[in-house]
Every structure is written in C-alpha cells, then in structure tokens.
Amino acid sequence: MAKSCLNKDCKQINPQSFNHFYEHKNTKDGHFSECIFRTRERQKKYRNTSEAKIKEKARKRTQKYKDREKKYSNYPENNAKKKNRTLLRKYCISLEQYSDILIFQSHKCAICKIDEINSRKERISCRS
Q1: Residue 53: CB partners within 8 Å, gap ≥ 6?
Q2: In angstroms, how far is CA 92 from the centroid of its own chain?
Q3: Global confidence as pTM
Q4: Distance of CA 104 to the CA centre of its chain
Q5: 19-50, pLDDT tens digit by residue?
Q6: Which residue segment(s) compose the domain that 101 sits in?
Q7: Within 10 Å of residue 60's Cβ, how many Cβ atoms?
Q8: Which helix (H) or strand (E) is 41 found in, with range?
C-alpha cells in the first residue's frame, strides 16, 4: 500500500510506502500524515533554532526534581525508607538486618574496626 505525505514542503516523490511514515495509533491508517524524512528535517530545524529553550526546560526539570528530593528528605521517616531501599538494592538486606549486624559488630566495621558513624571516606577505604 502507499500513502502521500501531506506536507507541502516535502521533497519526496508521492505516493510513498507506509515504511516512510512513523506509526501513530490514533489515526485511521495507523501512520502520521507527514513522512519520516520531513519529520526529521522539522525536528532538526527545531533543535537548531531552539537549543537555548530546550536547555532551559531541562534545567528547570532538573531543579524541580532536586527541590522535590530536598523536600522529601526533610522527614526522618523518609530517610529511613531511603536507607532501607538502598540497603535492599545494594546488599539485599533490610534496615532491621543492618541494625542487627551493627549491634553484633559493636557499631564498627568488621574489617577495619572503624566506627560506623565516622566519615564516608574512612568507611570506603576498608571496602577495597
């Protein structure tokens, strides 16, 4: 089957095969009305002319997520949940199991015997 690109500026010979059109489930034939080549040209032109606008949107989105994380971390129960998720992901142990291990080891590293409360740099050195 074939389809014609409805964009006036398209340089491709019409009709074109359906392979030259992106799929779109909300249209009758299941494809965009603009061919792939014209869509790519339009997107490239937008990226070149709107680079600053795109970067600004990305910066705002990043700031929004940072603000949300800062707000979320102000509550102690959320910090415990975050610590639990991290322990489960990295070591496959829960926060309760981690607490039991700390008590068993007198709140010290089993390898280097440094307090668990000390700075992160000191704790990383014994993990090598």
Answers
A1: none
A2: 23
A3: 0.40
A4: 38
A5: 888 888 888 888 888 888 888 888 899 888 88
A6: 93-128
A7: 10
A8: helix 36-49
